Amino acid sequence: MEIEMKQSRHSRTDRIVPAPFTRDEEKWAAVAHRDNRADDVFYYSVRTTGVYCRPSCAARLARRENVRFHATPQDAEAAGFRPCKRCRPNELPLAARRAEAISKACRLIGESDDTPDLGDVAKAVGMSRFHFQRVFKTLTGLTPKAYALAHRTNRVREQLKRSITVTEAIYEAGFNSNGRFYATSDQMLGMTPSVFRQGAPGATIRFAVGQCSLGSVLVAASEKGVCAILFAAEPEALVEDLQSRFPKARLVGDDRGFKTWVAKVVGFVEAPRLGLDLPLDIQGTVFQRRVWKALQQIPIGSTLSYSQVARKLGAPGSARAVAQACATNRLAVAIPCHRVVRNDGGISGYRWGVERKRTLLERESALSRGRPSA
Prior knowledge:
Layout: H1 2-14, H2 24-32, E1 43-46, E2 51-53, E3 67-70, H3 73-78, E4 82-83, H4 94-111, H5 118-124, H6 129-140, H7 144-162, H8 166-172, H9 178-189, H10 193-197, E5 204-212, E6 215-221, E7 226-232, H11 235-245, E8 250-253, H12 259-270, H13 286-296, E9 304-305, H14 306-312, H15 319-327, E10 340-341, H16 354-368
């Protein structure tokens, strides 16, 4: 037992990895290679210029004999050095500064009574218009213009519930004219503003509930197409969910013609090779629509991570927003959010349950390998 304990302690010691950038040789190598992993771990100063920098600073590389290392900006300044104007080591890291600037821009857009001039917003956060557009899209997944439109869409939804007239709601939401709003209102609201404002009175939502190997499935459609495909263990929960979404609509159940659409959904769940070709009524923000369109392009039997979807959208920093869009998807299997997995390939984060997601992926994977689905 004593020998085993000694071996165990020795094996743990062998696994200890020295902390990086502890020796001057390692620090100098990080500076020479502009290694951003060393940023905020240490700082370096240059005797001939009198400035100190982050290791990743893009300034011309100094001679080794002129370089000193410091643990903090305060140490460097106490030694008589001033911060570099290029990498600004006494401020937040670049990524944090950009995130702070974009957060401020979002607040400015949100607090504006009308659509602000994006050039003015860029100037307010200390960026050029072009740079602002690029950084904003990288961090949010949307252009500033699309974000402003999405924000006004949410605002007009709220105003339509409170305002006396539709016109009042339109102007309160920041639209400068009725015509400009009505040109895009159907896309934003999924219906005319007057119908939305009244809670869809008179609108007919057809639906039917079926059974499949994943449990109960509800398929509902407006006049434009299927607006919801939902799974649950019990059919009652599905109907209650539908009623909460359309409180004043006329819900029509057990429509014989409509049951053919339910049959298509059930058929696809059981045998993905059949495909799923249904007219869809997709309602969501600009970014959500972009995400859902990308999901529809993932082939059967394939998966992408949230980060990969974000990169496909040209917004590599928006993985969390992609995950949120997946979570708000109301069209199960028609918009295949089950084909999005964690970066390590793990299965998680499915609105209708991880086991349903795993079953769908296993069936689609078997199909892509040429084997019958289970």
